[in-house]
Write the structure tokens for this entry.
Amino acid sequence: MKIIKPKLHYDNMTGVLSGEAIGEKIARIKDMAGFYADENSRKRFDQDVLVYRVQYYSPVPEGTEGGLFFGNTTVFPGKVGDEYFMTKGHYHAIGNRGEYYWCIEGSGLLLMMDQDNHTWAEEMLPGSLHYMPAYVAHRSINVRKEPLVFGACWPSDAGHEYGLILEKGFGLRVKEIKGAMTLVKY
Ligand code: M6P
Ligand code: ZN
């Protein structure tokens, strides 16, 4: 019997993937319109600055029922006004799909929000594992001066619903106020 060599490699220390069918998604300041409280500061920023980068393995086409995607996200350090760099945050387009995150490097907060806008935060630090239940929106925030790197695994038909986040916000914002990380209401 032929033993097949692995087609994919995952670096446990850095979360970096290599091999076939690996895609990349990047978000720059210009892609973040409407997500930060201070839209004027965002507009004044160098629009090409990277806020976060996602690298992910897609063994099946997006939208395939029963498949899984596996990736890593790096949220770079920085702030728009007094609000830390973060991912856009999303519900799943198919709401009853869950997801796992695990923190690899750096530290930050994972904000989660249910459908009634009830919002809570979990600390992300190397080794922390986070289960995001169905119907719960998720956003990660880098609250330090080093990159925040975390892994993720999600169903290939989950999809991303950003419209609702733009419309109703995320319950809480994470800002640096008088030098300290502070959670404030939207
Ligand atoms: C993780 C996964 C991806 C998501 C990415 C960035 O890698 O949850 O599905 O796209 O984080 O998050 P967002 O799409 O909310 O900006
Ligand atoms: Zn998700």
